[in-house]
Design a protein that fits this description.
The protein is of the alpha+beta class. It is built from five helices and five strands; from the N terminus they run E-H-E-E-H-H-H-E-E-H. The chain has helices at residues 21-31, 52-66, 71-77, 97-107, 126-137; strands at residues 15-16, 35-39, 46-51, 111-116, 119-125. The longest helix has 15 residues, at 52-66. It is globular, with a radius of gyration of 16 Å.
């Protein structure tokens, strides 16, 4: 076990950049996840990440301006690409786990989308590294 592909989740839940923010919020809630890789609706390529934190910030801004009653209405009119992070670090399936761990710690990340040739291959989160640590401690 030395590469990202050894610990990544490959059955990744993702959204399209043109999906509405309400759909993304429902996925976070229903699936119990904190990160959603975003794919370009025209070519299917990886183009960013929507985090639970950015979604919550967006929701707080809406509620502050329009009240709680306006939240769903505004979310339905807002596309994911308007609030996603496009400047995000990524990993490749062949990346060394030590290198990925360094990126996590130095940049204080909570996820690394795994991308190869602009295609989303998987995702690694800080929880995956905790699981790896537990596994190694039991050896």
């Amino acid at each position: 076990m030395k590469r990202i592909s050894d610990i990544m989740v490959s059955n990744v839940i993702s959204v399209l950049d043109t999906d509405d923010v309400h759909k993304a919020r429902m996925l976070f809630k229903e699936k119990g996840i904190r990160h959603l890789p975003v794919l370009n609706s025209e070519n299917g390529e990886f183009c960013g990440v929507l985090t639970q934190r950015s979604l919550l910030n967006h929701a707080f801004n809406i509620v502050e301006k329009f009240g709680l009653s306006g939240l769903q209405k505004r979310e339905l009119r807002t596309q994911v690409k308007e609030i996603m992070n496009t400047d995000c670090d990524t990993a490749t399936p062949e990346m060394d786990l030590g290198c990925a761990a360094e990126i996590f710690t130095t940049k204080k990340l909570s996820c690394l989308p795994v991308v190869e040739n602009r295609q989303l291959m998987g995702i690694v989160t800080s929880l995956d590294f905790v699981k790896l640590t537990l596994y190694l401690l039991k050896l």
